[in-house]
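TASK: fixed-backbone design
INPUT:
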């Protein structure tokens, strides 16, 4: 896999500004980091575009969709128990007849054809079976909706994982450039006798640490890109980054109980469990039908020919027979199988009701957890934005203090590290809030592909 490479940040700075001062370097580093994080690579894809690719490529989703299609066709098979059936049968036989007293021998053939038809008039088990198949289709539809929602979240997670890894690498490279310039500055000061060897060694240690972090960030980005490519089926996919300034969407409605009530109606897990209760109820009806009669309307038409006669006559014969009637079948005793089947289905119905209640509780808890997670994430973003401003002010103060001799080199390095860490945490917190909004809708069962459009609008054009 080939990845887009960027020149080291300190080379870019030196190429543009020559040997800049420490204050100019620090300001340029952060400006460069912001521009690198905000500039999309060529042929970048949006979240909606990558989701559409994943929808056509992901094997797990395709399996769920094909299973739904199969269940629809299976349900149509049960309709046959309510519709008429017809059959055609034909036969040809050859017979030999020998009689010793008087001595008579003859061979003859028999041809016959029968057309028969029947129409169920009263079969409660067939009616329940057909109704049950419709509930199974509803259950399968809920499973497909759950698979689609899962695909939306998995694609968004992989998308934001790549963006977060790119931001981490960008900030680490910018930090490396800043530490490199700080190291050069400390060495120059030591050479002229204005600082001790300790400043140079501290800067060298921090530079080596940042170099290791850069290697880890490059590897993490490569892994994240491989995961995204495998999900969407596109080689070297390049997700678009968030545009600046970023205004995160608010949670609407801003009431956790509204989300919980919504989940009661539309969540796929609850819909599956509710269909399961209906299916269990119909199983009881089917079991009770074992005590009930069945009534069918039947009709048949038979044609029989003996072109060379029969055993009793040498003359050709032909007979046409037709019949129309009603067939009644009443079960009397089946060795207590029907009674025990009814008891079994009643227990399974109660189990299905318990499963429905468990699904409701699980969904309600998950929805509340997701809602408060988004609220907490938004508060964390606001706190990190304030921390970013404070860290920038602290870095400026430490840099000025170092220049006038009231701060040492390690103070500046720590302030730089804190600012880069805050910027990285802020970027990841924003991605977590966007993903949390999608997870909240998944928890409530309302997540659709259209929910990706507001996030898509926050991406760079």
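OUTPUT:
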């Amino acid at each position: 896999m080939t990845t887009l490479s960027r020149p080291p940040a300190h080379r870019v700075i030196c190429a543009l500004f020559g040997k800049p001062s420490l204050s100019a370097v620090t300001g340029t580093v952060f400006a460069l980091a912001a521009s690198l994080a905000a500039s999309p690579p060529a042929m970048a894809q949006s979240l909606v575009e990558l989701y559409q690719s994943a929808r056509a490529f992901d094997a797990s989703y395709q399996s769920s969709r094909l299973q739904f299609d199969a269940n629809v066709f299976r349900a149509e098979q049960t309709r046959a128990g309510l519709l008429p059936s017809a059959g055609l049968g034909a036969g040809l036989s050859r017979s030999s007849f020998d009689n010793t007293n008087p001595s008579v021998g003859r061979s003859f053939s028999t041809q016959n054809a029968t057309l028969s038809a029947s129409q169920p008039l009263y079969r409660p088990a067939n009616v329940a079976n057909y109704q049950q198949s419709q509930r199974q289709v509803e259950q399968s539809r809920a499973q497909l909706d759950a698979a689609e929602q899962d695909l939306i979240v998995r694609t968004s997670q992989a998308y934001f994982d790549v963006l977060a890894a790119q931001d981490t690498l960008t900030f680490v490279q910018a930090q490396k450039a800043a530490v490199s310039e700080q190291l050069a500055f400390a060495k120059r000061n030591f050479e002229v006798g204005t600082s001790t060897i300790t400043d140079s060694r501290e800067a060298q240690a921090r530079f080596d640490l940042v170099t290791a972090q850069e290697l880890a960030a490059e590897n993490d980005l490569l892994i994240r890109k491989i995961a995204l490519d495998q999900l969407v089926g596109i080689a070297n996919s390049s997700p678009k980054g968030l545009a600046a300034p970023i205004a995160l969407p608010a949670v609407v409605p801003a009431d956790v109980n509204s989300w919980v009530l919504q989940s009661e109606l539309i969540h796929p897990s609850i819909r599956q469990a509710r269909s399961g209760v209906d299916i269990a109820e119909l199983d009881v009806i089917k079991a009770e039908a074992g005590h009930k009669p069945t009534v069918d309307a039947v009709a048949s038409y038979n044609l029989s020919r003996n072109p060379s006669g029969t055993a009793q006559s040498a003359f050709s014969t032909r007979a046409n027979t037709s019949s129309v009637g009603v067939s009644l079948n009443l079960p009397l005793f089946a060795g207590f199988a029907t009674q025990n089947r009814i008891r079994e289905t009643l227990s399974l119905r109660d189990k299905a009701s318990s499963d429905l209640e468990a699904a409701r509780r699980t969904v309600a808890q998950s929805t509340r957890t997701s809602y408060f997670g988004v609220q907490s994430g938004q508060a964390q973003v606001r706190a990190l934005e304030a921390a970013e401003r404070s860290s920038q002010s602290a870095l400026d103060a430490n840099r000025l203090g170092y220049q006038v001799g009231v701060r040492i080199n390690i103070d500046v390095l720590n302030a730089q590290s804190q600012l880069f860490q805050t910027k990285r945490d802020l970027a990841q917190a924003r991605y977590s809030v966007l993903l949390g909004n999608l997870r909240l809708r998944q928890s409530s069962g309302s997540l659709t592909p259209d929910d990706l459009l507001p996030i898509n609008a926050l991406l760079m054009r």
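COMMENT: Residues 124-192 form the longest helix (69 residues).
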